[in-house]
Structures are given as structure tokens and as C-alpha cells.
């Protein structure tokens, strides 16, 4: 059992802190946001993540997990301090390290005994060294020692608890072997593969892994766009490609592009890191560009198919960047919906949980008049009622299980534009829809005889 303080109760901090408590450690999660801490103390979870609320409550009741805004005290009482503060993207695409620097300063000021400071925030290469120097600068008692370790996070939103409890690997970057071993031992109950390396390489692994996954997505989206033009089916192409174990079948689902808190931010940050050292990272730049274009491609597709969207009502299914989360950061819906509105369409938007976040985002981004052209509902079939087309942006379970007969009876025109390839072409043909998806032949009931 270790005494762990986790600084930052965002996604990563909250999930990792809870999982460390679950495996038997004494964890105290800290944040400067007192209101958030107060809500957490009362069992109110600020993010939607399946299973998290129950696991937090259980560990709170069993006295392994607590929350505080008294960060100095939490630091003083802990042996291991996890840094899980935000590193948002700055205007230039660079990771903003102000929260990391502030946390390092506080740790330095409060360092009263040997501690290991572990970085879980996604930070540019070299931040481990920077954290070390900031702490050193602020320690009061120069006899007190500490070590800095990098332990990047690979959680996926929507399955974060499962990813954490059954992690595929734990990357541990340390210059001091003993400190690295303590963090490796901490991961023992997760029964995972431990990969030990130096701090810089660990920091780089996180960016390289996310940029590679983003590359796979943009690559298959590019292939999908060609497939549409040559009459091939990208799902077959991906399946055939994926059978080569060197390529692998995962992350080859064509769609309307990646979003979320990691890929957009981390790809930009990697390009920036490369620039800083005088390297022009063209490949990742083009991955980012393809991803941007892909969001607009679905709007062009809608305009092309519908002739003109002006005055038309479009049912948009899904606002979150992926299912099982209320996270809308860099979600394709944030680009697609304003584009449709600007083209004169009315949007009826469905999402089971991401409506409040989207409304808040659009209240800052769109004019009053534009906002009035969007109606929100958690009633899927209500959104389809009387709409001229259905546009799928997130593959929520409700959407995958759509009752197509009912959907057809609700829609004014049986037209589905599917940005997530949710349905088989055969099914859509059989049910009599005009169906346009990504990288697959269109099913046009007017042209293809049933
Ligand atoms: C990702 C990484 O998977 C995780 O390891 C990292 O630590 C954080 O970033 P997350 O953003 O939660 O996790 O979601 P993920 O499931 O990876 O999906 C990211 C985006 O890619 C989503 O918008 C998703 O729709 C898209 N995607 C994913 C595709 O378009 N096609 C695919 O084949 C896979």
C-alpha cells in the first residue's frame, strides 16, 4: 500500500486515482477548483464515464479514496505524487505547461520527505527535466531528495476504467532505477506488461503512439475517399489490409475524422515539438489536414445529395466525439452543425448525454439567431420526425440499434447520410433507404433496383 496524491481531478487524474485506490492504495485526489472538490466529496462525478461513479463511491466508503483542495497537506502526507493536471493546446498548437509548472512549484515548496513525482499529464519531451528543476528551485530543505518519473496515460474515454484496470502496458520512464522500480511495483496488481525506459523516451512514446493511431485513421479516411470515387468498399479494404498482422485490423474504421481530448491536441503538439528542434513533420501535418477535411466532406456530401440544404430540416444523430462519453472536445459535430446552419438548414440534434455541453459550446460560438436553428432532444425518433434527412455523426448504441422501419416512417424523405458506417448496404437496400456512407458505394433506391 502506498500513499499517493494525484494533482488534478480531470479525466486522467480521476480515473487513475480511483484505479490506484481500487488496487489497495491510499489515494488523495487534489484540485485547485474547490467547488469541484466539494462536489466530488459528495460523490458527484464531473465527467460521464461508465462505472466511474460506483468505483469512486466504493473506494470513498472503504476509506481508500478522498478528495481535497488542500494541496500542500496532500503533498506532505504522500510518498508518490502523480501529476495529472491539464496541458491544453495553446493558440500555436504548443502544449500549455502553466498548470504543470505551478504544480511543480507547489511540490517543491511542500517537499518534506523523499517523494517520487510521476508525470501522467501529456507533456512535451523535456518536461520531466523541467519539473525536476522547478522542484529543486523551490525546495526549502536541500537535504530532502526526490525523483521524477514519467508514466504516460493511454486511457480511452468511454472505456477508461477497463483500460486502466486491464492496461495493455505501463510505460515507466525513470533516470533513477530504484524510483522506476517503485512505480513498476505499484502497477503489479494490474498484471500488466511493464516497459521501463528513460524519461525522454517515455514522454515521446505517448506522442508517437497517439500520432500513429491518428495516422491510421486519416490514412483509412483518405483511402475511403478514393474508394468512393473508384467504386470500392473501404470496409472490405480495411478488413483485407488488417489481416496482415504487420498492419493490424484496429483503428481502420473510416468515418468523419477523429476528435476528443487527445488526438487533435497531441498531433498538433508533436508537430510543434518537431518544429522546435528544426524538423518539419510533414506526415503528421498532413494527418491533421486530412482529419479537418474529413469533417467538411460530410457537409459537402449532404449538400450534393440534397441539392440545397437551405430551408431543409436535418436530423443529426450524435454530438459527442464518440459514444459513451459526454465529451465534445474537437467533436466533428462542432464543425458539421455550424456549417449546415450557415447553409440555411435547420438542425434537430440527438444525443443521449452530450446536449448540455454542446449547447454551452454553441452559445459562445454561434449567434442567437443561429442557435435558434438548432433543436436538441434525447428522443431519437422525435428528432427524425418530419426531417428531410438523417445525418449520423456518432455511433451511439441507440443509433446502431435504430428501428429502421420506424425511422423510415418518421422521416419526410428516407435519406440517411452516415458518417460512421453504422449499417450494412444490403440492409439499407432492403429497407428502401437512400443511404450514403463513408468510402462505400451509395445505396440509392432511385437507381438500384430492389
Ligand atoms: C485516445 C487513445 O485511444 C488513447 O490511448 C489516448 O490515451 C487518448 O486518446 P480517446 O480519444 O478516448 O483515446 O478515444 P479513441 O477510442 O481512441 O477514439 C479517438 C477518435 O478516433 C474518436 O473520434 C473516434 O471516433 C476516432 N476513430 C477511432 C476513428 O475514426 N476510427 C477508428 O478506427 C478509431
From TrEMBL:
Signal peptide, first to last residue: none
Record organism: Caldalkalibacillus horti
Alphabetical list of Pfam families matching this protein: UDPG_MGDP_dh (PF00984), UDPG_MGDP_dh_C (PF03720), UDPG_MGDP_dh_N (PF03721)
Xref: InterPro entries: 6-PGluconate_DH-like_C_sf (IPR008927), NAD(P)-bd_dom_sf (IPR036291), UDP-Glc/GDP-Man (IPR017476), UDP-Glc/GDP-Man_DH_C (IPR014027), UDP-Glc/GDP-Man_DH_C_sf (IPR036220), UDP-Glc/GDP-Man_DH_dimer (IPR014026), UDP-Glc/GDP-Man_DH_N (IPR001732), UDPglc_DH_bac (IPR028357)
GO molecular function, one term: UDP-glucose 6-dehydrogenase activity
UniProt family annotation: Belongs to the UDP-glucose/GDP-mannose dehydrogenase family.
NCBIfam families: NDP-sugDHase (TIGR03026), TeichurnBiosyTuaD (NF047673)
Taxonomic superkingdom: Bacteria
Protein name (record): UDP-glucose 6-dehydrogenase
Keyword NAD: yes
Annotated pathway: Nucleotide-sugar biosynthesis; UDP-alpha-D-glucuronate biosynthesis; UDP-alpha-D-glucuronate from UDP-alpha-D-glucose: step 1/1
Amino acid at each position: 500500500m502506498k500513499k499517493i496524491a494525484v494533482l488534478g481531478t480531470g479525466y486522467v487524474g480521476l480515473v487513475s486515482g480511483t484505479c490506484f485506490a481500487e488496487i489497495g492504495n491510499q489515494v488523495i485526489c487534489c484540485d485547485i477548483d474547490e467547488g469541484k472538490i466539494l462536489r466530488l466529496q459528495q460523490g458527484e462525478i464531473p465527467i460521464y464515464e461508465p462505472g466511474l461513479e460506483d468505483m469512486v463511491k466504493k473506494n470513498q466508503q472503504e476509506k481508500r479514496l478522498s478528495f481535497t483542495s488542500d494541496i500542500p497537506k496532500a503533498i506532505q502526507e504522500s510518498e508518490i505524487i502523480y501529476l495529472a493536471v491539464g496541458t491544453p493546446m495553446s493558440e500555436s498548437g504548443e502544449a500549455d505547461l502553466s498548470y504543470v509548472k505551478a504544480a511543480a512549484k507547489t511540490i517543491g515548496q511542500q517537499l518534506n520527505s523523499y517523494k517520487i513525482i510521476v508525470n501522467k499529464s501529456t507533456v512535451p519531451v523535456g518536461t520531466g527535466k523541467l519539473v525536476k528543476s522547478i522542484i529543486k528551485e523551490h525546495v526549502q530543505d536541500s537535504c530532502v531528495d526526490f525523483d521524477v518519473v514519467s508514466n504516460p496515460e493511454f486511457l480511452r474515454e468511454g472505456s477508461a476504467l477497463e483500460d486502466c484496470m486491464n492496461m495493455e502496458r505501463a510505460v515507466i520512464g525513470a533516470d533513477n532505477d530504484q524510483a522506476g522500480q517503485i512505480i513498476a511495483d505499484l502497477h503489479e496488481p494490474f498484471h500488466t506488461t511493464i516497459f521501463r525506459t528513460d524519461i525522454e523516451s517515455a514522454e515521446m512514446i505517448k506522442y508517437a503512439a497517439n500520432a500513429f493511431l491518428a495516422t491510421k485513421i486519416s490514412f483509412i479516411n483518405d483511402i475511403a475517399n478514393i474508394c468512393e470515387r473508384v467504386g470500392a468498399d473501404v470496409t472490405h479494404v480495411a478488413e483485407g489490409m488488417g489481416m496482415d498482422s504487420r498492419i493490424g485490423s484496429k483503428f481502420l474504421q473510416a468515418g468523419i475524422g477523429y476528435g476528443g481530448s487527445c488526438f487533435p491536441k497531441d498531433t498538433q503538439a508533436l508537430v510543434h515539438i518537431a518544429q522546435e528542434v528544426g524538423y518539419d513533420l510533414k506526415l503528421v501535418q498532413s494527418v491533421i489536414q486530412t482529419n479537418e477535411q474529413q469533417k467538411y466532406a460530410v457537409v459537402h456530401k449532404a449538400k450534393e445529395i440534397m441539392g440545397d440544404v437551405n430551408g431543409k430540416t436535418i436530423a443529426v444523430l450524435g454530438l459527442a466525439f464518440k459514444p459513451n462519453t459526454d465529451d465534445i472536445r474537437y467533436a466533428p459535430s462542432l464543425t458539421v452543425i455550424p456549417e449546415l446552419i450557415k447553409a440555411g438548414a435547420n438542425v434537430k440534434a440527438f444525443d443521449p448525454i452530450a446536449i448540455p455541453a454542446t449547447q454551452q459550446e454553441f452559445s459562445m460560438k454561434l449567434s442567437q439567431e443561429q442557435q435558434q436553428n438548432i433543436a436538441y432532444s434525447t428522443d431519437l425518433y422525435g428528432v427524425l420526425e418530419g426531417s428531410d434527412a438523417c445525418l449520423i455523426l456518432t455511433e451511439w448504441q441507440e443509433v446502431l440499434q435504430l428501428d429502421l422501419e420506424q425511422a423510415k416512417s418518421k422521416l419526410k424523405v428516407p435519406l440517411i447520410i452516415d458518417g460512421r458506417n453504422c449499417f450494412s448496404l444490403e440492409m439499407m437496400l432492403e429497407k428502401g433507404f437512400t443511404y450514403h456512407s463513408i468510402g462505400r458505394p451509395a445505396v440509392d433506391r432511385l437507381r438500384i433496383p430492389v
